Amino acid sequence: MIDRINNQLINNLNSTNLDKTPYSKKVSSFADTLKNYIKSVNDDQINANKAIEKFLRGEEKDIHNTMISIEKADISLQLFTQIRNKLIDAYKEIIRIQI
To answer: 28, 38, 49: which is closest to 80 by C-alpha?
Structure first.
């Protein structure tokens, strides 16, 4: 039973493409993820501004949707700020490492 599970695990590991992925692709993948998240935060901010404008012009009667859009933009911006702060702290920690 254990041999069969080990063989399945080995087969699964062998079938993955971990070794075929170049290192530069992993770095660009992180950069792409970060860019996509920044774009998402920006889109949330734009959508919130549009929702406010629609509400002020009277096109949107439901304040709940407007408030949801505003809160979504606020939370995503707060999360991005915290991620940025953690990245800066990690960078400062790396700089302090003695060689």
So the answer is: 38
Output the CA torsion sign for 51, 55, 57, 59: positive
Between the alpha carbon of residue 55 and those of residues 43, 71, 76, the distances in Å are: 18, 15, 21
Domain range list for the chain:
63-99
Three-state DSSP at 45 gives helix
pTM here is: 0.63
The string of pLDDT tens digits covering residues 7-61 is 555 565 555 554 555 555 555 688 888 899 999 999 999 999 999 999 999 998 8
Question: How many residues appear in the chain?
Answer: 99
